[in-house]
Amino acid sequence: MKVEKRKVGSHRLAGAALMVVVAALLGCCVPSCGSGSQPSVACKNCETAPGKISCVPVNDPGYGCGSQSCVPCVVPNAATAVCRPDGTCGVGACFPGFADCDQNSSNGCEVDIATGPNHC
């Protein structure tokens, strides 16, 4: 196998081309968030590992909902969180024994259905 020597600039182009392919496969930004290109899915740059900034969809509750925050959604007594169409965090599913009766994500799954007197 012959290894071809190239200038540093061509490596950057090859790396950029690879990023476009990976981003397209992941359904995120093409070529990356904040590059001025049209994203295939709205996305934002968030730290996904210490020192690693990656493009993540704005509707990923693991990185907050909406275009600004990268803080994960935390919904009280919820087993899972979801992103609502308005860009806020919401209840995906409650932990067993809890219910979201008022549909208010700020208090999450607020009713303890095992012991609480107020059930939905």
Description:
It is a single chain. The chain is an alpha+beta fold and 120 residues long. The chain folds into two domains: 8-57, no CATH class; 58-120, no CATH class. Helices cover 16% and strands 24% of the residues. The chain is built from one helix and six strands. It has one helix at 8-26; strands spanning 43-49, 52-57, 78-83, 89-94, 98-99, 111-112. The strands form three sheets. Strands 1-2 form a two-stranded antiparallel sheet. A hairpin with a 5-residue loop joins strand 3 and strand 4 (89-94). The model is unreliable at 1-28 (pLDDT under 50).
Break the fold down into its secondary structure elements and pairings:
Layout: H1 8-26, E1 43-49, E2 52-57, E3 78-83, E4 89-94, E5 98-99, E6 111-112
Antiparallel strand pairs: 1-2, 3-4, 5-6
Largest sheet, if any? 2 strands, antiparallel
SSE class: alpha+beta
Question: In order across it, which strands form the biggest sheet?
Answer: 1-2
Beta-strand share of residues? 15-25%
Number-wise, the strands total 6
The SSE string, one letter per element, is HEEEEEE
Structural shape: elongated
End-to-end span in angstroms? Answer: 69 Å
Cα Rg: 21 Å
Summarize the amount of helix as a percent range.
10-25%
* Number of helices, counting only DSSP H or I runs of 4 residues or more: 1
